Predict the structure.
Amino acid sequence: MKKELVELKINGRAHELAIEPSALLLDVLRQELGLTGSKRGCDESSCGACTVLVDGVAMMSCTLLAASCQEQEITTIEGVSEHGSLAAIQKAYGDWGGAQCGFCTPGFVMTVKSLLAENPDPTEAEVRTALSSNLCRCTGYSQMYEAIKSAIAAERVGMGAK
Amino acid sequence: MSDFSIIGKPTAMIDAAEKTTGGGKYTDDLSAPGMLIGKILHSPYPHARIKGIDTRRAEGLDGVVAVVVGKDAPNPYGILPVGHDEHALALDKVRYVGDNVACVVAVSEAIAEKAMELIDVEYGVLPAYFDPEESMKAESDLIHDNKPGNLEKDYHHAFGDPDKGFADADHIAEARFVANEVTHAAMEPHSTLASFELDPHTGHLGRLTVWSSTQVPYYLQHKLSLVLEMPMSQIRVIKPLVGGGFGGKSEVIPLEIIAAVAARKAQAPVKITYTREEVFWAHRGRPRTIIDLKTGIKNDGRITSVKARVVQDGGAYCSYGVVTILYSGALLGALYDIPNIQYDGYRVLTNKPACGAMRGHGTVNVRFAFESQLDELATKIGMDSAEIRQRNLLKPPCVTVNGLRVQSYGLPECIEKTVERSGWKERKGKLPKGRGLGIACSHYVSGAANSIIRSDMPHSTVNIKIDRDGGVVVYTGASEIGQGSDTMTAQVAAEVLGCSLARVRVIAADTDLTPIDIGSYSSRVTFMAGNATLRAAEDVKKRIAAAAAKKMNCAAEALTFREDLVFKKGSAPPIVKKDEAEEVEVTQAGASVSGRVEGQILRGSLQQKRKEEGPKEWMTFEEAVVAAIDFHGALTGTGSYAPPPEARGGKHKGGGVGPSPAYSYSAQIAEVSVDADTGEVTVHKVWAAHDCGRALNPVAVEGQIIGSVWMGMGQALTEEMVWKDGMLMNGGMLEYRSPSSVESPEVEAIIVESIDPEGPFGAKECSEGSLAATIPAISNAIYDAVGVRLHESPFTPERVLAALRAKRKDKALNLTEGVDPTAPARFREHGGALCFKGKGPQRHALDPARREAPASTGGAD
């Protein structure tokens, strides 16, 4: 297939790339740009390990054509750390054991980010529903809830301090 | 509060930031210059002879560099020395759908996939065996020619006098239990990158480096050496981050060997990563197990005798099979006091992917049967199900009838705690209709006392190096797979040396750098690698103490190492704690805070100053290290661990499997509700108490307990590999029905510390022992809720409903009668259920195609 020139805006930076029109966003991120934080767990939108934000909406990049994301803001896990330090959710996932093997973690972090952007104070049921787009085989999800709760609390304190 | 400054505190994993930022590298995240991609061609038949493979058309395709077939690496291998029955790629026969036939190496994945279609394989299809009990009757077309009756291995053990035990019993229960096949489905699909260096002396391919998603780098190095006919010293195996193992990466998986063979043939680095479907084919999960169990008890609840006949559907290759079937029998012991045990185990070959080791290896399915039957007997004699378990406790220290040594034993406390926390006494039997509580117990080894490769070598060895920068580098072969191995290692080293965690750097699982360790399986890391780390740290500490004592004019034994300081025992450490979480600050003027930059600049002059000042009451850790290096030269220490001979088990055939230096214990209570109309079971909460000896990192211990319970719940309710004529019908994460967050209950993890006399700081395992209790706890709770006892897992709505109808003596419903999922009667263009007449699935709120359609006309289109 003949390659085409596309421009993708990823984590605030523009990248001009020659890719096949059939190229998937996940492959472009991982193979062309070396952004290997988004993981390939299944290839079929089952597991959510490849979740990225496209214009703020959590999308599974394993079944998304890269060329369809032009002129949209793509945020990957590499774009989450703020000003050289861990975002509250990242810190909390570490502290509360939300990540064990860590393979699903980037996807979960992106899902949580999109949830909190939409709903800054979700109930436990809302958190559970939001997280059900992603699968984890290590944690049983329990410690993730603790992490998310603590991250919300930390964000609130952080915002109050400003 | 405690005598420890590092262990016992909830600690974030030392690699947590790598994982949460996406910066950490798993094998598939790696690449090498000139790297090629390998794709494996799998067998479409469950059992067939390969008459010929023609690779010429594939090799002719532009972009294809090499096509690898069986004869490129014909040496057999297998994880067990008694089970060398696998080849990198099939030589003459394929034995399951998904068996490995050929591998294409190409410049891109797309080209490799296209080339696979151009490989012509001629098969002669053979009769295949899918059911173990049928397979055992086979007389011709054996799966392996040297295994008559397709029997991989059988064991027949009798301890005590089982028949007399049954004669003495007041009540006997006997039943058949079936636990269906489950798999690890770790989030990270297996991946291997193999690369050869050119030898400067011969000019040909020389050393091999392999990066792989493995739990045991050393076993991979060993098997690569067998297949490639290279000395182990010429092979380096590096384990990057591993995205979950659960046993599925504890043995050598075909792609690991194939990648190396392919790299040799293509003369370039080759990476192979499995697709999710290939992960299911690679499998090595928990076999479908048929358990015929008989238990006898006295009227007072004491168990008199147990007899188990276990048949495991092992799949097409030996894998860990011989060990699995032995664990099933051996760990009937060491949980309760059972005076008489008879065990007959059969590991049978069938034409399906090989089963191997999975979390709770060999013990889980038998535990489901045993704990269900014990519950049944308790009901029979009108005894509380928690109490019958308390009546049968061991009295440690002891050696069980089948030769297992038990020392620390936290089971009584586990039962007490779960009973208390769940309100068992007040609530059992008093819950509303359709809701119930169930209890069960389980246990597991803290590392197998005997290595699968018989030798006298230590099971773990750890080296520590400390240099003038005051950094502590720990070299360990133990494999971090998400369970917290590296963090545990750092914690133990920091605790012994009395330094901060940040000072410790762990270099792990690289066969060129780290001493041999037999890896992450059988829950051995904390106990064995932890002990080795402890000993290595003690070794270094001794040297530092000797030098520091000289400077401080006291005996080395009189020194305490803590909080980055070395001071005389009894004297107050010269520290002021600003805040629990804040860094430790040194009060004395002139001394720098250890670990800071100014400390490093000052070190030379500081040392000089100390010399002039004469003996001191205390030193910083860095000063002590510098003193020791001046005194001894290089500061290194080493420690190793081998299980003591007393813990290595009985002398009977197969007695090597089951013994462990220590056992973990678990008791669980599950609260469930059952929908009598649909048969759906919901688990509301699980109280899980686990005796882990000592919790070195409570947050990690809780995570392991919860994870085990959760995985047990998956096996209990939804997870099952569904087969049709050797074809896996549900080879996807959703089809396999791994529970999502909405299906997952709250788990209250309760840590019980029995302080094992031989564990590092008293610690034992915490990652596997809890899994086995969950399944029977749920099945016992279902019985409490609706009065049916389920004999086959998972307890899907179909099975629960069938049991409910059978109890009411209703006609059995066959929900899937006449339905053949492989051949639907008619297809709908857009898929979906044939009988569906509803409004259609609701679209995601943000889906642009979502129409705010008027509710009245919904579904009309």
About this structure: The two ends of chain B are 69 Å apart (CA to CA). The longest strand of chain B covers residues 663-674. Chain B touches chain A through 57 residues (CB under 8 Å). Residues 326 and 657 of chain B are 6 Å apart (CA to CA).
